[in-house]
Amino acid sequence: MTKKVVKKKITEKDEEEKPKKMPSALQSIRGMRDILPMDQVYWNQVRQKAGELADTYGYERIDTPMIEDTNLFVRGVGKATDIIEKELYTFETKGGEQVSLRPEGTASIVRAYIQHGMLNLPQPQKLWYLGPMFRYDRPQSGRYRQFYQVGYECIGDDDPVIDAQLIIVGWNFLRELGIEAEVKINSLGTVDSRANYREALIAYFRTKRAKLSDDDKKRLLKNPLRLLDSKDPAIQELKAEAPQIADWLDEDSKNRFMRVLEYLDEVGVPYQFDPYLVRGLDYYERTVFEFYAPDEDETSQNALGGGGRYDALIPMLGGREETPGAGMSLGLDRIVSKLKEQDRKDDQPRTHELKSCDVFLAQLGERGRKRAMSLFEEFRKEGVPIAEAFSKGNIKAQMEIANRRNAKWAIVIGQKEVLDGTALIRDMDAGTQEIIDVKKIISSVKKKLASLTEQEPPKGETES
Ligand code: HAM
After folding, report:
1. Hey, is 236 helix, strand or coil?
2. Which of 43, 58, 110, 431 is the most exposed place for a label (fewest CB within 10 A)?
3. Who contacts 105 (Cβ-Cβ below 8 Å, separation ≥6)?
4. Residue 107 C-alpha to ligand 1 middle, in angstroms?
Protein backbone atom coordinates (compact mmCIF):
# COMPACT_ATOMS: atom_id res chain seq x y z
CA MET A 1 0.00 0.00 0.00
CA THR A 2 1.40 3.33 -0.91
CA LYS A 3 1.16 6.11 1.54
CA LYS A 4 -0.54 9.18 0.28
CA VAL A 5 1.57 12.23 0.87
CA VAL A 6 -0.55 15.23 1.58
CA LYS A 7 1.26 18.42 0.82
CA LYS A 8 0.23 21.12 3.20
CA LYS A 9 -0.38 24.46 1.61
CA ILE A 10 1.78 27.08 3.31
CA THR A 11 -0.38 29.90 4.48
CA GLU A 12 0.67 33.48 5.28
CA LYS A 13 0.26 32.67 8.96
CA ASP A 14 2.80 29.83 8.69
CA GLU A 15 5.25 32.18 7.03
CA GLU A 16 4.92 34.63 9.91
CA GLU A 17 5.55 31.91 12.46
CA LYS A 18 8.69 30.63 10.74
CA PRO A 19 11.73 31.71 12.82
CA LYS A 20 13.19 34.77 11.12
CA LYS A 21 16.87 34.72 10.16
CA MET A 22 18.54 37.71 11.81
CA PRO A 23 20.59 39.80 9.42
CA SER A 24 24.25 39.64 10.36
CA ALA A 25 25.78 42.84 11.75
CA LEU A 26 27.98 44.58 9.21
CA GLN A 27 31.48 45.75 10.01
CA SER A 28 33.49 48.66 8.68
CA ILE A 29 35.67 47.54 5.77
CA ARG A 30 39.31 46.53 6.14
CA GLY A 31 41.68 49.39 6.83
CA MET A 32 38.84 51.82 7.59
CA ARG A 33 37.75 52.70 11.09
CA ASP A 34 35.40 54.81 13.17
CA ILE A 35 36.70 57.65 15.26
CA LEU A 36 34.47 57.32 18.29
CA PRO A 37 33.28 60.12 20.60
CA MET A 38 35.73 59.03 23.31
CA ASP A 39 38.67 59.73 20.96
CA GLN A 40 37.40 63.07 19.71
CA VAL A 41 39.09 64.85 22.60
CA TYR A 42 42.44 64.00 20.96
CA TRP A 43 41.26 64.77 17.43
CA ASN A 44 39.89 68.13 18.53
CA GLN A 45 43.24 69.03 20.03
CA VAL A 46 45.01 68.15 16.79
CA ARG A 47 42.49 69.97 14.59
CA GLN A 48 42.75 73.03 16.79
CA LYS A 49 46.54 73.04 16.56
CA ALA A 50 46.30 72.74 12.76
CA GLY A 51 44.11 75.85 12.49
CA GLU A 52 46.09 77.80 15.07
CA LEU A 53 49.39 77.29 13.19
CA ALA A 54 47.70 78.07 9.86
CA ASP A 55 46.62 81.44 11.27
CA THR A 56 50.04 82.16 12.75
CA TYR A 57 51.89 81.42 9.50
CA GLY A 58 49.31 83.05 7.22
CA TYR A 59 47.78 79.95 5.55
CA GLU A 60 44.17 80.11 4.32
CA ARG A 61 41.83 77.12 4.44
CA ILE A 62 40.89 75.32 1.26
CA ASP A 63 38.73 72.21 0.80
CA THR A 64 38.89 70.17 -2.38
CA PRO A 65 36.79 67.14 -3.42
CA MET A 66 37.75 63.69 -2.21
CA ILE A 67 37.29 62.31 -5.74
CA GLU A 68 39.20 63.65 -8.71
CA ASP A 69 39.99 62.71 -12.29
CA THR A 70 42.45 59.79 -12.09
CA ASN A 71 44.81 61.61 -14.48
CA LEU A 72 45.42 64.28 -11.87
CA PHE A 73 47.08 61.78 -9.54
CA VAL A 74 48.81 59.81 -12.28
CA ARG A 75 50.37 63.00 -13.65
CA GLY A 76 50.91 64.63 -10.26
CA VAL A 77 52.14 61.86 -7.98
CA GLY A 78 53.87 59.86 -10.77
CA LYS A 79 52.91 56.75 -12.70
CA ALA A 80 55.73 54.58 -11.35
CA THR A 81 55.09 55.18 -7.64
CA ASP A 82 53.56 52.67 -5.22
CA ILE A 83 50.74 55.12 -4.54
CA ILE A 84 49.62 55.04 -8.17
CA GLU A 85 50.64 51.53 -9.16
CA LYS A 86 49.26 49.72 -6.14
CA GLU A 87 47.37 51.95 -3.76
CA LEU A 88 44.95 54.07 -5.76
CA TYR A 89 41.22 53.55 -5.14
CA THR A 90 40.13 53.99 -8.69
CA PHE A 91 36.87 53.33 -10.52
CA GLU A 92 34.69 54.24 -13.47
CA THR A 93 31.56 56.26 -12.71
CA LYS A 94 28.15 55.48 -14.23
CA GLY A 95 28.91 58.26 -16.68
CA GLY A 96 32.14 56.55 -17.79
CA GLU A 97 34.57 58.96 -16.10
CA GLN A 98 37.78 57.48 -14.66
CA VAL A 99 37.99 58.83 -11.13
CA SER A 100 39.99 58.11 -7.96
CA LEU A 101 39.75 58.78 -4.26
CA ARG A 102 42.53 61.20 -3.42
CA PRO A 103 45.62 59.46 -2.02
CA GLU A 104 47.09 62.82 -0.92
CA GLY A 105 46.28 66.52 -1.03
CA THR A 106 49.00 68.35 -2.96
CA ALA A 107 47.90 67.46 -6.51
CA SER A 108 44.35 68.65 -5.78
CA ILE A 109 45.54 71.93 -4.27
CA VAL A 110 47.72 72.61 -7.31
CA ARG A 111 44.77 71.78 -9.58
CA ALA A 112 42.58 74.24 -7.65
CA TYR A 113 45.33 76.90 -7.79
CA ILE A 114 45.47 76.60 -11.59
CA GLN A 115 41.72 76.19 -12.13
CA HIS A 116 40.79 79.28 -10.10
CA GLY A 117 43.51 81.52 -11.53
CA MET A 118 45.12 82.01 -8.11
CA LEU A 119 48.20 82.99 -10.04
CA ASN A 120 46.60 86.42 -10.43
CA LEU A 121 46.26 86.84 -6.68
CA PRO A 122 49.12 88.11 -4.51
CA GLN A 123 51.91 85.48 -4.41
CA PRO A 124 52.66 83.23 -2.72
CA GLN A 125 49.27 81.63 -2.11
CA LYS A 126 49.47 79.83 1.21
CA LEU A 127 46.75 77.20 1.52
CA TRP A 128 45.98 74.60 4.17
CA TYR A 129 43.61 71.64 4.33
CA LEU A 130 42.57 68.86 6.63
CA GLY A 131 40.71 65.73 5.63
CA PRO A 132 40.69 62.05 4.75
CA MET A 133 43.02 60.50 2.18
CA PHE A 134 42.73 56.98 0.76
CA ARG A 135 45.43 54.45 -0.08
CA TYR A 136 44.81 50.77 -0.74
CA ASP A 137 47.87 49.70 1.21
CA ARG A 138 48.25 46.68 3.49
CA PRO A 139 46.72 47.79 6.79
CA GLN A 140 48.84 47.52 9.92
CA SER A 141 49.50 49.53 13.04
CA GLY A 142 49.58 53.21 12.05
CA ARG A 143 48.68 52.44 8.47
CA TYR A 144 45.07 52.73 7.34
CA ARG A 145 43.29 52.77 4.02
CA GLN A 146 41.44 55.91 5.05
CA PHE A 147 43.65 58.22 7.06
CA TYR A 148 43.70 61.92 7.83
CA GLN A 149 46.21 64.55 6.89
CA VAL A 150 46.64 68.21 7.61
CA GLY A 151 48.61 69.89 4.86
CA TYR A 152 50.16 73.29 4.18
CA GLU A 153 51.02 74.28 0.60
CA CYS A 154 52.82 77.47 -0.40
CA ILE A 155 52.57 78.15 -4.14
CA GLY A 156 54.23 80.92 -6.13
CA ASP A 157 57.50 81.51 -4.27
CA ASP A 158 60.80 79.65 -4.59
CA ASP A 159 62.69 81.24 -1.71
CA PRO A 160 64.35 78.59 0.51
CA VAL A 161 62.95 80.40 3.54
CA ILE A 162 59.58 78.87 2.58
CA ASP A 163 61.06 75.34 2.77
CA ALA A 164 62.55 76.09 6.17
CA GLN A 165 59.34 77.61 7.45
CA LEU A 166 57.31 74.55 6.41
CA ILE A 167 59.68 72.42 8.48
CA ILE A 168 59.33 74.86 11.38
CA VAL A 169 55.51 74.63 11.17
CA GLY A 170 55.63 70.80 11.33
CA TRP A 171 58.19 70.86 14.10
CA ASN A 172 56.13 73.32 16.17
CA PHE A 173 52.98 71.31 15.50
CA LEU A 174 54.50 68.17 16.99
CA ARG A 175 56.45 69.82 19.81
CA GLU A 176 53.53 71.91 20.99
CA LEU A 177 51.44 68.76 21.28
CA GLY A 178 54.22 67.28 23.40
CA ILE A 179 55.47 64.89 20.70
CA GLU A 180 59.19 64.55 20.32
CA ALA A 181 60.18 64.53 16.69
CA GLU A 182 63.25 64.34 14.51
CA VAL A 183 63.61 66.00 11.15
CA LYS A 184 65.34 64.21 8.30
CA ILE A 185 66.27 66.33 5.35
CA ASN A 186 67.85 65.98 1.93
CA SER A 187 68.02 67.76 -1.40
CA LEU A 188 67.04 66.01 -4.63
CA GLY A 189 68.35 68.76 -6.88
CA THR A 190 66.51 69.72 -10.05
CA VAL A 191 65.04 67.35 -12.63
CA ASP A 192 68.18 67.86 -14.77
CA SER A 193 70.75 67.29 -12.04
CA ARG A 194 68.79 64.26 -10.91
CA ALA A 195 68.96 62.70 -14.39
CA ASN A 196 72.74 62.24 -13.98
CA TYR A 197 72.34 60.80 -10.53
CA ARG A 198 69.71 58.42 -11.90
CA GLU A 199 72.25 57.02 -14.35
CA ALA A 200 74.81 56.51 -11.57
CA LEU A 201 72.21 54.75 -9.44
CA ILE A 202 71.19 52.44 -12.29
CA ALA A 203 74.83 51.57 -12.94
CA TYR A 204 75.37 50.75 -9.25
CA PHE A 205 72.25 48.62 -8.76
CA ARG A 206 72.84 46.78 -12.05
CA THR A 207 75.95 45.30 -10.51
CA LYS A 208 73.79 44.06 -7.61
CA ARG A 209 70.92 42.79 -9.75
CA ALA A 210 71.14 39.26 -8.36
CA LYS A 211 70.25 40.53 -4.90
CA LEU A 212 67.16 42.45 -6.04
CA SER A 213 63.58 41.17 -5.67
CA ASP A 214 61.38 41.08 -8.78
CA ASP A 215 59.62 44.23 -7.61
CA ASP A 216 62.92 46.04 -7.15
CA LYS A 217 64.17 44.89 -10.56
CA LYS A 218 61.09 46.56 -12.05
CA ARG A 219 61.80 49.68 -10.00
CA LEU A 220 65.35 49.75 -11.35
CA LEU A 221 63.97 49.91 -14.87
CA LYS A 222 61.14 52.35 -14.29
CA ASN A 223 62.05 54.57 -11.38
CA PRO A 224 65.44 53.75 -9.80
CA LEU A 225 65.16 56.45 -7.12
CA ARG A 226 62.28 54.43 -5.66
CA LEU A 227 64.81 51.72 -4.79
CA LEU A 228 66.11 54.00 -2.04
CA ASP A 229 62.60 53.94 -0.59
CA SER A 230 62.37 50.16 -0.63
CA LYS A 231 61.55 48.45 2.67
CA ASP A 232 63.41 45.30 1.57
CA PRO A 233 66.27 44.60 4.06
CA ALA A 234 68.59 43.60 1.18
CA ILE A 235 68.20 47.06 -0.34
CA GLN A 236 68.71 48.72 3.03
CA GLU A 237 72.12 47.03 3.07
CA LEU A 238 72.97 47.84 -0.55
CA LYS A 239 71.97 51.45 0.00
CA ALA A 240 74.94 52.05 2.29
CA GLU A 241 77.33 51.78 -0.68
CA ALA A 242 75.09 53.43 -3.25
CA PRO A 243 76.05 56.78 -4.81
CA GLN A 244 74.64 59.76 -2.92
CA ILE A 245 72.61 62.45 -4.59
CA ALA A 246 74.55 65.16 -2.73
CA ASP A 247 77.50 64.47 -5.05
CA TRP A 248 75.39 65.18 -8.11
CA LEU A 249 73.66 68.38 -7.03
CA ASP A 250 73.92 71.47 -9.23
CA GLU A 251 75.44 74.58 -7.62
CA ASP A 252 72.14 76.43 -7.30
CA SER A 253 70.43 73.50 -5.53
CA LYS A 254 73.44 73.16 -3.22
CA ASN A 255 73.30 76.85 -2.27
CA ARG A 256 69.57 76.73 -1.72
CA PHE A 257 69.92 73.67 0.46
CA MET A 258 72.59 75.37 2.58
CA ARG A 259 70.26 78.31 3.08
CA VAL A 260 67.41 76.05 4.25
CA LEU A 261 69.78 74.48 6.80
CA GLU A 262 71.00 77.89 7.96
CA TYR A 263 67.43 79.07 8.59
CA LEU A 264 66.74 75.94 10.61
CA ASP A 265 69.94 76.50 12.62
CA GLU A 266 68.88 80.08 13.27
CA VAL A 267 65.53 79.03 14.73
CA GLY A 268 67.07 76.11 16.59
CA VAL A 269 65.28 73.27 14.79
CA PRO A 270 67.57 70.23 14.85
CA TYR A 271 67.75 68.04 11.75
CA GLN A 272 69.59 65.05 10.38
CA PHE A 273 70.93 65.06 6.86
CA ASP A 274 69.77 61.82 5.21
CA PRO A 275 71.43 61.43 1.78
CA TYR A 276 69.04 58.63 0.82
CA LEU A 277 65.76 60.34 1.69
CA VAL A 278 63.83 60.49 -1.59
CA ARG A 279 60.13 60.34 -0.49
CA GLY A 280 57.52 58.18 -2.18
CA LEU A 281 56.06 60.76 -4.57
CA ASP A 282 57.63 61.85 -7.84
CA TYR A 283 56.85 65.56 -7.79
CA TYR A 284 59.67 66.63 -5.49
CA GLU A 285 62.69 68.71 -6.41
CA ARG A 286 65.38 70.18 -4.19
CA THR A 287 64.36 70.12 -0.48
CA VAL A 288 62.64 67.01 0.90
CA PHE A 289 62.08 66.25 4.57
CA GLU A 290 60.29 63.92 6.95
CA PHE A 291 59.32 63.98 10.62
CA TYR A 292 59.89 60.92 12.81
CA ALA A 293 59.26 59.97 16.39
CA PRO A 294 62.81 59.19 17.62
CA ASP A 295 62.14 55.73 19.03
CA GLU A 296 60.44 54.43 15.89
CA ASP A 297 62.21 52.18 13.45
CA GLU A 298 63.07 54.17 10.42
CA THR A 299 60.74 53.02 7.71
CA SER A 300 58.53 55.54 6.00
CA GLN A 301 55.30 54.02 7.30
CA ASN A 302 56.21 55.38 10.70
CA ALA A 303 56.81 58.91 9.53
CA LEU A 304 54.60 61.46 11.26
CA GLY A 305 54.74 63.73 8.24
CA GLY A 306 56.76 64.88 5.31
CA GLY A 307 57.01 67.25 2.42
CA GLY A 308 59.25 69.23 0.17
CA ARG A 309 59.57 71.49 -2.83
CA TYR A 310 57.76 70.68 -6.08
CA ASP A 311 58.69 73.42 -8.54
CA ALA A 312 58.00 71.29 -11.63
CA LEU A 313 54.53 70.15 -10.54
CA ILE A 314 52.52 73.25 -11.41
CA PRO A 315 53.59 73.34 -15.10
CA MET A 316 53.20 69.56 -15.25
CA LEU A 317 49.53 69.93 -14.31
CA GLY A 318 48.95 72.65 -16.89
CA GLY A 319 49.87 75.74 -14.85
CA ARG A 320 52.15 78.57 -15.92
CA GLU A 321 55.82 77.65 -16.41
CA GLU A 322 58.10 78.51 -13.53
CA THR A 323 55.45 78.66 -10.86
CA PRO A 324 57.20 77.15 -7.86
CA GLY A 325 55.62 75.41 -4.90
CA ALA A 326 56.46 73.66 -1.64
CA GLY A 327 54.42 71.96 1.05
CA MET A 328 54.17 69.57 3.92
CA SER A 329 51.60 67.30 5.45
CA LEU A 330 51.25 65.49 8.74
CA GLY A 331 49.51 62.17 9.39
CA LEU A 332 46.91 62.86 12.06
CA ASP A 333 46.10 59.21 12.86
CA ARG A 334 49.72 58.64 13.87
CA ILE A 335 49.86 61.90 15.82
CA VAL A 336 46.68 61.02 17.74
CA SER A 337 48.06 57.59 18.51
CA LYS A 338 51.22 59.23 19.92
CA LEU A 339 49.09 61.48 22.14
CA LYS A 340 47.17 58.49 23.46
CA GLU A 341 50.38 56.57 24.05
CA GLN A 342 51.76 59.45 26.10
CA ASP A 343 48.61 59.65 28.22
CA ARG A 344 48.89 55.94 28.91
CA LYS A 345 52.52 56.34 29.95
CA ASP A 346 51.62 59.21 32.29
CA ASP A 347 48.66 57.12 33.48
CA GLN A 348 46.38 60.01 32.62
CA PRO A 349 43.83 58.79 30.12
CA ARG A 350 41.61 61.65 29.06
CA THR A 351 38.00 61.05 29.96
CA HIS A 352 35.38 61.80 27.48
CA GLU A 353 32.47 63.71 28.89
CA LEU A 354 29.41 65.38 27.54
CA LYS A 355 29.97 69.10 27.25
CA SER A 356 29.11 70.96 30.49
CA CYS A 357 26.11 73.26 30.42
CA ASP A 358 25.08 75.54 33.29
CA VAL A 359 21.34 75.35 32.62
CA PHE A 360 19.18 72.28 32.06
CA LEU A 361 15.57 72.38 30.89
CA ALA A 362 13.41 69.57 32.34
CA GLN A 363 9.79 68.82 31.52
CA LEU A 364 6.91 66.77 32.89
CA GLY A 365 3.92 65.49 30.95
CA GLU A 366 3.07 66.04 27.30
CA ARG A 367 1.99 69.67 27.73
CA GLY A 368 5.12 70.41 29.74
CA ARG A 369 7.27 68.83 27.03
CA LYS A 370 5.64 70.91 24.27
CA ARG A 371 6.08 74.15 26.20
CA ALA A 372 9.68 73.23 27.04
CA MET A 373 10.45 72.52 23.37
CA SER A 374 9.38 76.00 22.28
CA LEU A 375 11.17 77.54 25.25
CA PHE A 376 14.36 75.70 24.27
CA GLU A 377 14.21 77.34 20.82
CA GLU A 378 13.71 80.77 22.44
CA PHE A 379 16.78 80.24 24.63
CA ARG A 380 18.79 79.25 21.57
CA LYS A 381 17.72 82.36 19.65
CA GLU A 382 18.83 84.47 22.61
CA GLY A 383 22.22 82.75 22.51
CA VAL A 384 21.82 81.17 25.95
CA PRO A 385 23.33 77.66 26.03
CA ILE A 386 20.90 75.18 27.50
CA ALA A 387 20.73 71.38 27.79
CA GLU A 388 17.70 69.07 27.61
CA ALA A 389 16.59 65.45 27.50
CA PHE A 390 13.19 65.70 25.84
CA SER A 391 12.89 61.99 25.14
CA LYS A 392 12.93 61.24 28.87
CA GLY A 393 9.62 61.57 30.72
CA ASN A 394 10.91 60.63 34.13
CA ILE A 395 12.18 63.59 36.19
CA LYS A 396 14.82 61.47 37.98
CA ALA A 397 16.38 60.40 34.69
CA GLN A 398 16.39 64.03 33.56
CA MET A 399 18.10 65.20 36.75
CA GLU A 400 20.78 62.54 36.32
CA ILE A 401 21.54 63.95 32.89
CA ALA A 402 21.51 67.49 34.33
CA ASN A 403 24.16 66.35 36.81
CA ARG A 404 26.25 64.69 34.12
CA ARG A 405 26.23 67.98 32.22
CA ASN A 406 27.27 69.80 35.43
CA ALA A 407 24.18 71.99 35.36
CA LYS A 408 23.97 74.61 38.09
CA TRP A 409 20.29 75.28 37.52
CA ALA A 410 17.44 73.16 36.25
CA ILE A 411 14.30 74.77 34.89
CA VAL A 412 11.27 72.51 35.33
CA ILE A 413 8.08 72.91 33.30
CA GLY A 414 5.17 70.62 34.19
CA GLN A 415 1.42 70.64 33.61
CA LYS A 416 0.89 73.10 36.48
CA GLU A 417 3.52 75.53 35.24
CA VAL A 418 1.99 75.49 31.75
CA LEU A 419 -1.44 76.38 33.20
CA ASP A 420 -0.01 79.08 35.50
CA GLY A 421 2.36 80.56 32.92
CA THR A 422 5.31 79.96 35.25
CA ALA A 423 8.53 77.98 35.41
CA LEU A 424 10.35 76.51 38.32
CA ILE A 425 14.08 77.10 38.73
CA ARG A 426 15.98 74.70 40.90
CA ASP A 427 19.43 75.48 42.25
CA MET A 428 21.16 72.13 41.80
CA ASP A 429 23.72 72.63 44.58
CA ALA A 430 21.59 74.30 47.22
CA GLY A 431 18.49 72.25 46.38
CA THR A 432 16.32 75.42 46.65
CA GLN A 433 13.67 76.30 44.09
CA GLU A 434 11.88 79.47 42.99
CA ILE A 435 8.86 80.06 40.78
CA ILE A 436 9.18 82.63 38.01
CA ASP A 437 6.83 84.12 35.42
CA VAL A 438 7.71 82.15 32.27
CA LYS A 439 7.96 85.40 30.28
CA LYS A 440 10.84 86.47 32.52
CA ILE A 441 12.66 83.15 32.53
CA ILE A 442 15.25 84.02 29.86
CA SER A 443 16.23 87.33 31.45
CA SER A 444 16.37 85.71 34.86
CA VAL A 445 18.63 82.91 33.61
CA LYS A 446 20.84 85.47 31.84
CA LYS A 447 21.29 87.30 35.19
CA LYS A 448 22.22 84.09 36.94
CA LEU A 449 24.79 83.25 34.26
CA ALA A 450 26.24 86.78 34.46
CA SER A 451 26.62 86.39 38.24
CA LEU A 452 28.76 83.29 37.55
CA THR A 453 31.28 85.23 35.45
CA GLU A 454 31.37 88.03 38.06
CA GLN A 455 32.38 85.48 40.68
CA GLU A 456 35.38 84.31 38.63
CA PRO A 457 38.64 85.91 39.82
CA PRO A 458 40.02 88.47 37.36
CA LYS A 459 42.57 87.05 34.91
CA GLY A 460 46.13 87.01 36.21
CA GLU A 461 45.05 86.93 39.88
CA THR A 462 46.45 83.85 41.54
CA GLU A 463 45.28 82.19 44.68
CA SER A 464 47.67 82.67 47.59
P1 HAM B 1 53.23 61.37 2.44
O2 HAM B 1 54.59 61.20 3.03
O3 HAM B 1 52.79 60.36 1.46
O4 HAM B 1 53.21 62.82 1.81
O5 HAM B 1 52.18 61.43 3.60
C6 HAM B 1 52.32 62.34 4.68
C7 HAM B 1 52.00 61.65 6.00
O8 HAM B 1 50.70 61.05 5.94
C9 HAM B 1 52.91 60.50 6.34
O10 HAM B 1 54.13 60.94 6.90
C11 HAM B 1 52.07 59.73 7.34
O12 HAM B 1 52.16 60.32 8.62
C13 HAM B 1 50.67 59.94 6.82
N14 HAM B 1 50.24 58.73 6.09
C15 HAM B 1 50.53 58.37 4.81
N16 HAM B 1 49.96 57.20 4.50
C17 HAM B 1 49.29 56.79 5.59
C18 HAM B 1 48.47 55.64 5.90
N19 HAM B 1 48.23 54.69 4.99
N20 HAM B 1 47.93 55.54 7.13
C21 HAM B 1 48.16 56.51 8.07
N22 HAM B 1 48.90 57.61 7.83
C23 HAM B 1 49.46 57.76 6.62
C24 HAM B 1 52.15 63.35 1.16
O25 HAM B 1 51.03 62.87 1.16
C26 HAM B 1 52.46 64.68 0.51
N27 HAM B 1 51.22 65.19 -0.12
C28 HAM B 1 53.04 65.68 1.49
C29 HAM B 1 53.30 67.00 0.87
C30 HAM B 1 52.52 68.10 0.95
N31 HAM B 1 54.32 67.31 0.09
C32 HAM B 1 54.20 68.56 -0.34
N33 HAM B 1 53.08 69.05 0.18
Report:
1. helix
2. 431
3. 64, 129, 131, 133, 149, 151, 153, 329
4. 13
Residue bearing the CA closest to ligand 1, atom 32: 327
Q: Is the CB of 306 under 6 A from ligand 1?
A: yes
Residue 54, SS3 per DSSP: helix
Q: Which of 284, 329, 335, 337 to mutate to test the pocket of ligand 1 (most atoms within 8 A of CB)?
A: 329
Quote the pTM value.
Answer: 0.89
Rounded to whole angstroms, the Cα distance separating 88 from 134 reads 7
Strand ranges (E), 175-284: 182-187, 272-273
Please state, in angstroms and rounded to a whole number, the distance separating the CA atoms of residues 129 and 347. 33
Q: Is 335 in the pocket of ligand 1 (CB under 6 A)?
A: no
d(CA 356, CA 72): 46
Mean pLDDT score, 80-96: 95
Distance CA 59, CA 289 (A): 20
- Please tell me the predicted confidence (pLDDT) of residue 322: 93
Written as one letter, the residue type at 160 is P
Q: Is the pLDDT of residue 299 over 90?
A: no
Amino acid making up residue 331: G
Residue nearest to atom 16 of ligand 1 (CA): 143
Q: What 3 state SS string does 134-160 have?
A: ECCCCCECCECCEEEEEEEEEECCCCH
Residue 369: CB atoms within 10 A of its CB come to 19
Q: How far apart are CA 339 and CA 351, in angstroms?
A: 14
**β pairing state of 359-363 and 325-331:** unpaired
Q: Where residue 461 falls among pLDDT bands split at 50, 70, 90?
A: very low
Using the mean position of ligand 1's atoms as its centre, give its distance from the Cα of residue 22 in Å: 41
31: left (phi over 0), alpha (psi -120 to 50) or beta: left
C-alpha to C-alpha distances, 240 to 205, 208, 216, 268, 299, nearest whole angstrom: 12, 13, 16, 29, 15
Tell whether ligand 1 has an atom less than 6 A from the beta carbon of residue 304: yes
Question: Residue 12 pLDDT > 80, yes or no?
Answer: no
Residue 60 has pLDDT above 90, yes or no: yes
The answer to whether the CB of 334 is under 6 A from ligand 1 is: yes
Query: Coil, helix or strand for 101?
Result: strand
